Amino acid sequence: MPAYGRRFNGTANTPCGAADTASAPVPAVPESRRFFTPGVRVIRPKLSLRRPLAVLAAALIGMTGAAMVAAPASAHHTTITGKVVCDQLTGERVITWKVVNSERNTAATIKTVTAEPSTPVQVLVAGAEPRNLQGTAIPRGGFVEAVQRVPGDTKFAKLTVDARWDNKREKVNDGSVNLDRDQPCTPAPKCVDASQAKYSHTFDGPKGTATVKLEGNLPLCEGAEQYFTLVSYFAPRPQFATPQYVYGSPDSDFLGGTQTEIELNVEVPECYTQVDLIWGGVDEVIDPLVENGPRYGSKKLGDRGAPGNRSSGPPGWYNGGDKNCTTPASTFASNCDGTVTVSLSNDGKISRYPVEFEVRGENGWSTKVTVDPGKANNETVVPAENAGKIEVLVDGKVIEGGTYTWERPEDCPLPAVTTEADCEKFTLTATNPEGNSPVKVEFTYGDKTETRTVEPGKSETVIFKAGDEETALVVLPELGLELEVVYAPEGCDGGTGGGEEPPPGLPVTGAAAGGIAAGAIALLAIGAVLFVMARRRRIHFTA
């Protein structure tokens, strides 16, 4: 058959590479038309690579897609890291584990948790109880943090997590921290050892005052006590010189337990003196300070050496004064009980022999005291009944500054007055605290006055028959004080005494029961306080 008469197999002849018609079906050609028309030339197109390349590309894309579908099985994982701090309150190491979800499109749930050391690993929840890390969900592309406490000497810690994702993938991962290079975690101290404690102090030598305070927030350890002492001296010059003799009594106290600050006070002689704030108790006091004798040295607070340098503050020593502590010399101190303590000293600068003092009081009272050179005597006490005028003599002459009269100290407790009132009588009671001197009290009600002397630690009571007077006056002439009290009994038909009926037409007066009770309690509580008012001030209250 000629070439142009070749028949097709029921399919149109399409040039290779024509992708847009390669798969389009062609209608069948009738049998009568299956031959080419005579005289028409058939042209065959050249073969093209586009079709096989397209097929190859499609195959590669399919394989890549298959690979992408299979990849998540190995990509799903958690990343575990840890940070460690020391809890000095408990001495434990605190590890904060961070578990990160690798997947941005699916959440994960922690199925199991294995910790080394085997202590709880918990997620902290604000305002609620911590929950275990096991069973916790990790959000898509997120993380969760959990805390684990381990002993302070732990060297290595590891956390293993088995996580399962929403797409049924599952993976076990772990993380660890090495602690062997860190110092062991130990609890913070709850107290400070006395040998390591630091202090601070204030010091006023001329006034004889000082304070010492324990520094920091920790108390001294249980049972520890650190004493400090303030001491004043007689001195021969306003600069350091010897000999020196203790004046009065040193003041000593300790820091320890709940006491973290102390205040110290000493009397300072009105002459050349030295005042020292020292480390230790009264057993550390040197008396006298003599040439070539022991010194406080670095025991003085504020010194550059130990232990004085363990307290920060001004130098804890003072030398000064504006006049000689004469030889012999005397100082006086009034006591609340009316007695006077006389301190006698002999510094030995003028005489190297004992000095005999004579101390005279009123009413013919006297005593003789011998004081050796470089010594002092603080044991002479003039009785209250003889302390109106005191003289100190040597060789029959009153020494400089050797006269004195008792004066009531400002810190002495004052007497108290209480009252009781009923329809028949008005009772007034004055009480003098123990340790005071006897006190004279004058009670006046109406036209009657009673005088009593109240001994220390005793009370004196005066009972007046109830009358028309509504007030009574209590006077302490020696103290320059007056106290006015009101007679206001309860339930006496208007408050008049003696059960008398009030005049017709006058209003009935009198305090209510509650007022009386409150007034009585107030009197008992503030009786002494009322006397601290200014001299001759009249105080008015209702009984």
Characterization of the model:
It is a single chain. The protein has 543 residues and is mostly beta strands. 7% of the residues lie in helices and 39% in strands. It contains three helices and 32 strands. The protein has helices spanning 50-70, 72-75, 513-526, and strands spanning 78-87, 92-101, 108-116, 121-123, 131-132, 137-138, 143-150, 156-165, 170-178, 199-204, 209-214, 226-234, 245-255, 261-265, 273-279, 311-312, 317-320, 329-334, 340-346, 355-360, 366-371, 375-382, 390-394, 397-404, 416-421, 425-431, 439-445, 448-454, 459-465, 471-476, 481-486, 538-542. Strands 1-2-7-4-5 form a five-stranded antiparallel β-sheet, with no helix packed on it. The longest helix has 21 residues, at 50-70. Mean pLDDT is 80; it is low at 1-26, 31-37, 64-73 and 495-543.
Q: In percent, how much strand structure appears in the residues? A: 35-45%
Instruction: Indicate the overall shape.
Output: elongated
Termini separation = 156 Å
Our Rg estimate from Cα atoms comes to 53 Å
Structural class: mainly beta
Q: Give the low-pLDDT segments.
A: 1-26, 31-37, 64-73, 495-543
- Estimate percent helicity: under 10%
Major sheet: 5 strands, antiparallel
Give the helix tally. 3
Q: Strand order, biggest sheet?
A: 1-2-7-4-5
Whole-number mean pLDDT: 80
Count every beta strand, where a strand is a DSSP E run of 2 or more residues.
32
